Write a sequence for this structure.
C-alpha cells in the first residue's frame, strides 16, 4: 500500500504543482505512477467545473470564464505540458533531420514558431470555452482532462521511445507495464463512458476525436522523431485538450441544426 501511495505522490510531484509531501525520488516509488497520471486530470476537471459554477452563480461574463478556464490547466500543472508542446513545435517547424530535431527539443530556448502555435491554441481554447451553453458540455470538457492523460500515459508505455533517457523514461522504465496499461485503459473507458452517458452524440464525437488525435500523435512522432519523448507527450496533451472543447461545441451545434 505504501508503494501505491508513494506512486501517487510521485505522479503529483512530477505532473502538477499541487502541494504534496516530499518523498524519496526512487524507481520503487514510481512503479505505478503513470496509473495516477489521470488523477491530475480529475483535479483539473473539478476545478474547471467549479469555476463554471462560480461564474454562473455570480453572473460573471463569458470571456472571464473562458480566459481563467484556459489558465486553470496551466496553474495545476505548472505549464510542464506547454513546455513540451513548445519544444516539439520548434522541432517540427525546423524541418531538420531527426537527430537535429531531438537536439532542438532539448534546447531550453523557445523559438518563434512555438510562441505562435501556443498563442493560437490558447486563443482557440478561450474562444470555444466562451461558446459553451450548458453544464453538460462543461462536464464533457472537464472529463476531457482525464481522457487526455489516460491516453498520454497509455502511449508512454506502449509507444516506442525516441530516446533511452529522459523524464518520460524515468516513469516508463520502472513501471509495471501490464498493470499500468490495464489501469490506464480503465481510466479511458470510464472517461469516455461518462462523456457518452452525459451527452451521447457529443460524448461519442469527442471520444472519437481524442482517439484520432492519439493516432495522429503516434504517426507524427514515429515519422519525425522515431518515437515519443516527454516533450511530445506534452505536445499531444495540448493538442488533445484543444480539440476537445472544439469537438464539444461543434458536435452540440451540429446535433441542434441537423439532427433535431
Amino acid at each position: 500500500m505504501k508503494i501505491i501511495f508513494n506512486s501517487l505522490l510521485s505522479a503529483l510531484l512530477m505532473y502538477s504543482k499541487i502541494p504534496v509531501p516530499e518523498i524519496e525520488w526512487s524507481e520503487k516509488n514510481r512503479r505505478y505512477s503513470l496509473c495516477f497520471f489521470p488523477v491530475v486530470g480529475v483535479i483539473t476537471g473539478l476545478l474547471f467545473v467549479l469555476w463554471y459554477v462560480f461564474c454562473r452563480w455570480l453572473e460573471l461574463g463569458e470571456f472571464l470564464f473562458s480566459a481563467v478556464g484556459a489558465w486553470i490547466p496551466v496553474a495545476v500543472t505548472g505549464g510542464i505540458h506547454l513546455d513540451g508542446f513548445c519544444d516539439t513545435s520548434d522541432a517540427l517547424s525546423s524541418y531538420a533531420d531527426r537527430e537535429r530535431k531531438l537536439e532542438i527539443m532539448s534546447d531550453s530556448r523557445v523559438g518563434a514558431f512555438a510562441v505562435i502555435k501556443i498563442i493560437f491554441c490558447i486563443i482557440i481554447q478561450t474562444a470555444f470555452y466562451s461558446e459553451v451553453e450548458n453544464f453538460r458540455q462543461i462536464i464533457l470538457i472537464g472529463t476531457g482532462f482525464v481522457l487526455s492523460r489516460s491516453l498520454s500515459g497509455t502511449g508512454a508505455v506502449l509507444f516506442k521511445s525516441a530516446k533511452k533517457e529522459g523524464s518520460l523514461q524515468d516513469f516508463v522504465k520502472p513501471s509495471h507495464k501490464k498493470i499500468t496499461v490495464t489501469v490506464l485503459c480503465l481510466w479511458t473507458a470510464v472517461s469516455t463512458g461518462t462523456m457518452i452517458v452525459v451527452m451521447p452524440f457529443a460524448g461519442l464525437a469527442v471520444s472519437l476525436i481524442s482517439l484520432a488525435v492519439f493516432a495522429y500523435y503516434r504517426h507524427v512522432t514515429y515519422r519525425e522523431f522515431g518515437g515519443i519523448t516527454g516533450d511530445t507527450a506534452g505536445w499531444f496533451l495540448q493538442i488533445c485538450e484543444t480539440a476537445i472543447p472544439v469537438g464539444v461545441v461543434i458536435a452540440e451545434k451540429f446535433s441542434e441544426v441537423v439532427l433535431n
User: Anything to note?
Assistant: The chain has one domain: 41-259.
